[in-house]
From TrEMBL:
It comes from the Eukaryota. Its cofactor is Mn(2+). The lineage of its organism: Eukaryota, Fungi, Dikarya, Ascomycota, Pezizomycotina. InterPro entries: Bicupin_oxalate_deCO2ase/Oxase, Cupin_1, GPI/OXD, RmlC-like_jellyroll, RmlC_Cupin_sf. This is RmlC-like cupin domain-containing protein.
Length: 469
């Protein structure tokens, strides 16, 4: 382009030659009309993930919501990526691409997505798992995500481990035989729980037009879904002569039983919605005195300043002796406060929303992870952490523990219940004015599991998506 032509174009863009562009679209006229300027006319600070961007406070950035492409630049350091680069994967994990300046050390991976798990597809359903094999940090608990369509049965079986479950969607009928020989049956829907102790035989069936989907938790990270004790698998590997003796029937009765496990298969629908119509007859059949199910979402929540919490453990769900859990809602901009769990690792599943989590592992180590729906996170016991909502929708998540009780320590509460002079000496010995403000804030400190901080007026949100792109 000739220099004279370049000058003309630049003048037209910035409104100096108003005849060069329509008057109603000039920057000056748009400002007079109270209209915003297009991104190309603004002179805001550089957007995130650029060499000129500065962020002294390590604020979170919602790369997915703002459709940004994270790059390894932080406060003037870093460089562009010249080799292969998975932009979508980087967008899901901005704090791995550009870690906060506070991250240090060699903490292992504590995040896994169920979408990366192997999917076993069966007749009318599927299953996938996250165990210590997929996520090495998952040593105390294993998770299985399972789907059963209407009428589809997860066949009669039992496990070496106890089984805890949360219904994600739909309806399911559960049956079991307790240790005393009592029959248990119940129909569950979204937000309900069940718990079967180790060895208790049970079955599951999807109900309603869409069946069900649920999360199963087993109290051992080395659990293997393939190692379940299945009724058909056992009978297929037992001589028919033995089956004849056991069930007092001619051996030919068993000529056509399944030759191998059925696992998940299409079954007949219950005769009616009533449990009593499906309850087995017989003079030795008795109803179980155990309550193996619990309506978690039906219980009143503990409302906090930034969300709500519901907890289920042996105190309100007595059958659940080895698994405790919390259902947590975190509003946009709110924080699952800084805390730690003293007796068990936390195994969490994000049901919806986007979160940033930093885990502190002592010895100067800390690592930050980003989570979205379907992601599993593990925080080893006693490691300090928080969950920050970095998206524009509410976070819904489950916190699950191999424990009989839900227990955590709140950092805010602990400092509020520690002698004030010790807190000031530890944190603010060289800044008494800041110490005074801090002590005033924690004076009446109570546990606020999900806290809503005041609006940060210093936070710079003036850059836009268009600028970054």
């Amino acid at each position: 382009m000739r220099p004279s032509a370049l000058i003309f174009v630049l003048a037209a863009v910035f409104g100096d030659l108003t005849a060069g562009v329509p008057i109603q679209d000039s920057p000056r006229q748009r400002l007079l009309d109270g209209k915003p300027l297009p991104a190309r006319y603004r002179t805001n600070p550089p957007p995130p993930y650029t060499p000129g961007h500065r962020e002294p406070y390590d604020r979170a950035v919602d790369a997915i919501g703002k459709q940004l492409d994270p790059l390894p630049y932080r406060n003037g350091h870093g460089a562009s990526v010249l080799g292969p680069w998975n932009r979508k994967r980087a967008r899901q994990n901005p704090d791995l691409v550009r870690p906060p300046s506070t991250d240090r050390g060699n903490m292992p991976n504590l995040r896994w997505s169920f979408v990366d798990s192997h999917m076993r597809i069966e007749e009318g359903g599927w299953t996938r798992q996250t165990t210590v094999r997929e996520l090495p940090a998952s040593v105390e608990l294993a998770g299985v995500n399972m789907r059963l369509d209407e009428g589809v049965i997860r066949e009669l079986h039992w496990h070496k481990e106890a089984e805890w479950a949360y219904v994600l969607e739909g309806s399911v009928r559960v049956t079991a035989l307790d240790y005393e020989g009592g029959t248990f049956m119940d129909d569950l829907s979204k937000g309900d729980l069940w718990y079967f102790p180790a060895g208790v035989p049970h079955s599951l069936q999807g109900l309603g037009p869409n069946g069900t989907e649920f999360l199963l938790i087993f109290d051992s990270g080395s659990f293997e879904e393939e190692s379940t004790f299945l009724l058909t698998d056992w009978l297929a590997h037992t001589p028919q002569s033995v089956l004849s003796k056991n069930f007092h029937l001619p051996p030919e009765i068993f000529a056509h039983i399944p030759a191998s496990e059925r696992y998940i298969f299409q079954g007949s629908k219950p005769p009616s919605p009533s449990l009593s119509d499906d309850f087995p007859p017989g003079k030795y059949v008795k109803k179980s005195k155990q309550q193996f199910t619990h309506r978690l979402l039906a219980q009143p929540p503990k409302n906090t300043t930034g969300g709500a919490v519901r907890m289920a453990d042996s105190t309100n769900f007595p059958a659940s002796r080895t698994v405790a859990a919390a259902h947590v809602l975190i509003a946009p901009s709110a924080l699952r406060e800084m805390h730690w769990h003293p007796t068990a690792d936390e195994w969490s599943l994000i049901l919806r929303g986007r979160a940033r989590v930093t885990v502190f592992g002592a010895e100067g180590s800390a690592r930050t992870f980003d989570y979205q729906a379907g992601d599993v996170g593990v925080v080893p016991k006693n490691m300090g952490h928080f969950v920050e909502n970095i998206g524009d929708e509410e976070i819904e998540m489950l916190e699950i523990f191999r424990a009989d009780r839900f227990r955590d320590f709140s950092l805010f509460q602990w400092l509020g219940e520690t002698p004030r002079r010790m807190v000031a000496d530890t944190l603010f010995q060289g800044d008494p004015k800041a110490g005074e403000k801090f002590l005033k804030e924690i004076e009446d400190a109570g546990k606020d599991e999900v806290t809503m901080p005041p609006v940060d007026e210093d936070e710079d949100t003036r850059w836009s998506v268009e600028e970054d792109l």
